[in-house]
Structure formats: structure tokens, C-alpha cells
Design a protein that fits this description.
Shape: globular
CATH superfamily of the largest domain: SLC41 divalent cation transporters, integral membrane domain
Structural class: mainly alpha
Number of helices: 22
Radius of gyration: 30 Å
Oligomer: single chain
Number of strands: 5
Strand order of the largest sheet: 1-2-3
Distance between the termini: 83 Å
CATH architecture of the largest domain: Orthogonal Bundle
CATH topology of the largest domain: Tetracycline Repressor, domain 2
CATH class of the largest domain: Mainly Alpha
Largest sheet: 3 strands, mixed
Length: 480
């Protein structure tokens, strides 16, 4: 059964409002009918309930599964579950693929074993692998037992690859041909297949033992002489991936070479599957979201409407780190209480130094994390990049430090305070830039995500060092 067309992005908010209105109406009417009571109370309530469900079902039938997934992502938990109950069972698997990890977990928890098996069975092997981590172990075992030998082997193979590798993104929906057949035969073969795989822009040419020897672009198949053999028009200059290749590097290759699909082969050259641009785009989106969460110190994709307890637990780790570093910053200020008492202006000016330092560090750390993610930073150019970022920080420190120093002098009529402000700004911007470089490099060296808690660590560094530099200079130069 084909799905309805996707909704235009500008109509999704309108659709959400309409669905919420139907859910609210359903809840309100059922509450009123329930309160009225009477001899025909159950009959009236049942009729009203069916009428509201029919209206809601009609609206859902007009939507694409991806649009329904969007609605489930943005609805509060109680409304989400009521809407999920009205989703067509044949769409369950596709919608579970589209929703966020946190929402998928809540939906899976509401499904019984039979429903989960039906949803997973309707998916392709690579799609089952995508939702497998959220399925109960007994469901996975029963699912494996229900698959035929080929699908079971493929699913087990896909699940065996680490998450950030090409093997985890690979699918098996491909078309292969032999080199010795004519293009006319290849065309007849495609017509017999009927429905072709998505993102099909080339056929994979293999030997009898499935060893990959080249690709046949569809444009050549359609434009070359039908009597020519595949071997005569084969493209041997192709991009081939190994299942253990890094998925991030594969994504960069897709962008660099404008790929739509590419073969995946083992070390012996045997064709295993393919990787497509839609899988790469999904990976890039998921990686970007994970990076944003990591920078903020969140451990996992959090359901917007998760319980307070679950959301709080997800944020505890780095909040604890932040509390510890904030305490260190407060003790730095405590070391200079005497200086602050002698010159009250220090208390008003020190947040400026720390704040500008934090902004500079965030600019640097964002560039470094992006460079590491895209593979732009290599040992050969790392030193030049570090010197460049320190140079930018020094120039900004002189420029904006001089400006803030003049403002401090104008406000407090104290030339020494203005000079301290300028020097502290200059030094803290250098420290911030250095921290923005060192933190992601260190995390990468430790085999951790360079973005993991980076903003928390950076804020701690720029605050503590900003206070220490400014108050230390003021103590040495102004209060003695």
C-alpha cells in the first residue's frame, strides 16, 4: 500500500494544530458525556468516541508516515500515545524509523510483542538494524528466528558493525549484472524487476563469485548502443567502500564526489551491499544532533516531554562537573576578596573579562570541532591552525581590550584600572583560544567525542582564568 504524499513543510504546523484540536475535542467531549451519566450514558459515550476517532483517523490517513512521525515527536506524552493508538498498523515500522530515539523508546514501551514483531517484519534488513537497539531482546531473538536464512545472516552482519561505520549504514537493495551480457538484456532484466530500489543511479557489475569489477551508470545503459555488452561501457573507476570504513569519511566522500549510491565490498572485492545518499544524510543529521547535545553535556537524545526524573538524570553528569568548576571559580574570586574590598570597581568589571573570553573560546572550539569532524585538520596543518587562532585572539585582545580599557578609564577616572582591564582582556582571550584548541584535541586523543562536554569545560576555563588574570593583575598593580 503506497503512502500519501509528504506534506509541505509550511503546512506541518497547521496540521499539528488541527490534530491537537481534534485530540482536545475528543478529550473534552468524552469528559462531558462521562459526567452527565444517565441510562444511555455508555451508548452516547461510545458513539461520541467513535465519531471523534473517525475524524482523527481521516486526518491521519491524509498524512505521510514521516509527517505522522513529526507529530509524535512534538506532542506531549499523553497526546502522543493517544495519536499512536490511531496509527495504521502497517505504518508502525516506518514511523518507528522516523521518530527520534527518545520518542521511539516511549512508543516501543506501549507495544506488545506481537505488534513489535509485525512492525519489524515489514521493514528491510538494514531498517530493522536501525531500530533493533530499542527492541526487547526476546523480540530480536524471535525476529531472527522468523527470518529466512539470507535475511537473518544480513541482519546479524549489520548488527555486528559498530554504529559509526559504513557497515552499519549499508543496505542490500541493489541490482547486479554480469559483464558479458548486452545492454538490451540488462534493460529487459530491469523491466522484469518491476519496482527498482530507491537511489538507483548505477548497476553493479560482478563476476560469478560476486566479485565487484565495475559499475554501469544508468545514463550509459539508456544512451549506449543496446547491442553493446556491459563490459564495453563499464566504469571501472569507481568509489568503493569497506564495511569497516568510518561513516564520517564516507559522508565526506559522498559530498566530494556527488555520489548517489556506492558499492560496499570486503577486502577480497566481494560485493556485500551498498550505501546510499539518504543513509548518509540521515547519518549526518543524527551526528549533528548528537554533537550539539554533547557540547551541552547531554548524554543522549532526550525526549522533549520525557519525565522530570529521566530528563534530570540525563543532565546530572555535566551539571555536576559544572558545579565543581563553578566552585573553583568562586574560590579564585575568594583569593582576592581584599583587593575587591579596596577597589569595588573590580567586582563590576571582572564579568566582562570572563564573558568576552568565553565568547572567543566558543568561536575557536566550534571551528576546531567542525574541522576535526570534516577531516580538515591533519598533523601537517595543525601547527599552522593553532598559530592562526592565537593570532586572531591576540589581535582581538588588543583591539577590544584597548576599547574596554578606555571605557573603564572613562567610567572610573583611573588610568591604572584601564590598563589592567586591557591587559587582562588580551591575556584571557589568548587563554580562551588556547582552551578552545586544547579541549577538543585532548578529547580526541583520549578516543572520546571532541564535542563531549566541551562547552562546559571551556566555560570553566575561561571563567576561572579570567577572574584569576584580572584580579591577579589588579592586586599586583593597583592595590599595593
Amino acid at each position: 500500500m503506497s503512502a500519501p504524499p509528504k506534506s509541505a513543510p509550511e503546512t506541518l504546523e497547521q496540521t499539528l494544530a488541527q490534530v491537537q484540536a481534534l485530540l482536545d475535542k475528543q478529550k473534552l467531549v468524552e469528559t462531558l458525556v462521562h459526567r452527565q451519566g444517565g441510562p444511555r450514558h455508555e451508548l452516547v459515550e461510545n458513539l461520541v468516541h467513535k465519531q471523534n476517532l473517525a475524524e482523527l483517523q481521516k486526518k491521519l490517513d491524509e498524512l505521510h508516515p514521516a509527517d505522522v512521525a513529526y507529530l509524535l515527536d512534538v506532542l506531549p506524552v499523553d497526546e502522543r500515545l493517544r495519536l499512536w493508538e490511531q496509527v495504521k498498523p502497517e505504518w508502525d515500522g516506518e514511523i518507528l524509523l522516523e521518530v527520534s530515539d527518545g520518542v521511539r523508546e516511549s512508543l516501543v514501551a506501549r507495544m506488545n510483542r506481537r505488534e513489535l514483531l509485525a512492525a519489524a517484519t515489514a521493514l528491510d534488513t538494514d531498517e530493522i538494524a536501525d531500530i533493533a537497539p530499542d527492541l526487547p531482546r526476546d523480540v530480536i531473538e524471535e525476529l531472527l528466528a522468523s527470518l529466512d536464512t539470507q535475511k537473518r545472516a544480513r541482519l546479524q552482519s549489520t548488527l555486528s558493525y559498530p554504529e559509526d561505520t559504513v557497515g552499519a549504514l549499508m543496505d542490500y537493495d541493489m541490482v547486479t549484472v554480469r559483464a558479458d551480457v548486452s545492454l538490451e538484456v540488462a534493460m529487459r532484466y530491469l523491466r522484469r524487476l518491476g519496482e527498482l530500489p530507491d537511489q538507483l543511479d548505477k548497476l553493479f557489475v560482478v563476476e560469478r563469485d560476486d566479485r565487484l569489477i565495475g559499475v554501469l551508470p544508468l545514463k550509459k545503459l539508456l544512451t549506449a548502443d543496446p547491442d553493446s555488452t556491459v563490459a564495453q561501457v563499464i566504469a571501472e573507476d569507481m568509489v568503493v567502500f569497506r564495511p569497516a570504513d568510518d561513516a564520517r569519511e564516507a559522508a565526506q566522500a559522498f559530498e566530494r564526489y556527488d555520489l548517489v549510491a556506492a558499492p560496499v565490498a570486503d577486502e577480497a572485492g566481494k560485493l556485500l551491499g551498498r550505501i546510499t545518499v539518504d543513509a548518509v544524510v540521515d547519518y549526518i543529521r543524527a551526528s549533528s544532533e548528537a554533537e550539539m547535545l554533547s557540547m551541552a553535556g547531554l548524554k543522549e537524545d532526550e525526549d522533549l516531554f520525557a519525565t522530570v526524573w529521566k530528563a534530570a538524570r540525563n543532565r546530572w553528569t555535566w551539571l555536576g562537573v559544572n558545579l565543581f568548576t563553578a566552585f573553583i571559580a568562586s574560590r579564585v574570586i575568594g583569593l582576592f576578596e581584599g583587593s575587591i574590598e579596596k577597589l569595588a570597581a573590580l567586582a563590576a568589571l571582572m564579568p566582562i573579562v570572563a564573558g568576552i573570553g568565553g565568547n572567543t573560546g566558543n568561536q575557536t572550539i566550534t571551528l576546531i570541532i567542525r574541522g576535526l569532524a570534516l577531516g580538515y585538520i591533519q598533523p601537517s596543518n595543525a601547527r599552522r591552525l593553532i598559530l592562526k587562532e592565537l593570532g586572531v585572539a591576540a589581535l582581538n585582545g588588543l583591539l577590544w581590550g584597548g576599547l574596554v580599557g578606555l571605557l573603564a578609564y572613562g567610567l572610573y577616572d583611573n588610568a591604572g584600572l584601564g590598563g589592567v582591564m586591557m591587559l587582562a582582556m588580551f591575556l584571557n582571550l589568548l587563554v580562551a583560544a588556547l582552551a578552545g584548541i586544547v579541549i577538543p584535541f585532548t578529547l580526541q586523543k583520549l578516543k572520546r567525542d571532541p564535542a563531549l562536554g566541551s562547552s562546559v569545560l571551556l566555560t570553566a576555563t575561561t571563567d576561572s582564568m579570567g577572574f584569576f588574570i584580572f584580579l591577579g593583575l589588579a592586586t599586583v598593580l593597583l592595590t599595593h
